[in-house]
Design a protein that fits this description.
This protein is α/β, with parallel strands linked by helices and 232 residues long. The chain has helices spanning 14-17, 23-31, 36-52, 70-73, 87-96, 136-145, 163-172, 202-211; strands at residues 59-62, 80-84, 104-107, 120-126, 147-158, 177-180, 186-188, 196-197, 215-222, 225-231. It has one domain: Vaccinia Virus protein VP39 (Rossmann fold), CATH 3.40.50.150. The N and C termini lie far apart (40 Å).
């Protein structure tokens, strides 16, 4: 069985446990029964990584969670470092790749990466960028700092068309929503951890990347998301 596919489960228990669950917990449950819109998105992510990452490249993933995207990378390279600030996610990720000693997971904050300058060929951020809130500029600066001069950054994030599909998922998971703004920013209860989830227009992404002094190589729209390729 593909390790990415886990047993479907009953969501009713979330009614009782939602107050003690974190963002990463909800994402893990979502992965166990993906809506079709998310399946299309994640399939396109895989193709995008395969298209844009070179064989045996040194890759850093920001917000690696329990390692979902790593499964899309190991056929290309096993020289991978994943970082996340959630210890539970790091522990689970380490358990999922015991046969690959070159794949490393580190608990740390994306705002202050523990790596030297120009250390990675690629820095990827799959489905975490929307949770950065007012930390986006600092995290992008760190991603740029650890990227090699000819390296690339790949970001996958919600597009302006995502809100209806997002709300279906949040409601199904009984996520503790406090506010939904007209532009599609969803704010969850503070107990959620990373309690902001945004979506972006192409123009907004270009502005954010330009402010971080990153060059936009490509922004491809994919169903409910954008896949972005950036360089120094």
């Amino acid at each position: 069985m593909d390790a990415r596919n886990e047993t479907r489960m009953d969501y009713s228990f979330l009614v009782f446990k939602s107050k003690c669950m974190k963002n990463n917990d909800y994402q893990n449950i979502l992965l166990q029964s993906l809506p079709e819109s998310y399946k299309i998105w994640f399939d396109e992510e895989k193709k995008y990584l395969e298209k844009n990452i070179n064989k045996n490249a040194k890759v850093l993933e920001i917000g690696s969670g329990d390692g979902r995207s790593i499964f899309d990378l190991i056929a290309i390279t096993k020289n991978i470092t994943g970082i996340d600030h959630n210890q539970k996610a790091i522990r689970k990720a380490r358990q999922r790749f015991p046969e690959h000693s070159s794949i490393v997971f580190i608990k740390t904050d994306a705002e202050k990466l523990p790596f030297k300058e120009s250390d990675f060929d690629y820095v990827i951020c799959m489905c975490s960028f929307m949770n950065f809130g007012n930390k986006k500029e600092k995290i992008l600066s760190e991603m740029k700092r650890v990227l090699k001069p000819a390296g690339k950054i790949i970001i996958s994030t919600f597009s302006q068309n995502a809100l209806p599909e997002r709300m279906k998922v949040y409601e199904k998971l009984n996520a503790p929503i406090k506010e939904v703004s007209p532009n599609g920013t969803v704010i969850f209860d503070e107990s959620f951890g990373d309690n902001i989830s945004e979506q972006f227009t192409k123009e907004e992404l270009i502005r954010i990347f330009n402010q971080a002094k990153l060059q936009v190589v490509d922004i491809a729209e994919c169903n409910i998301a954008y896949l972005c390729l950036l360089s120094k």
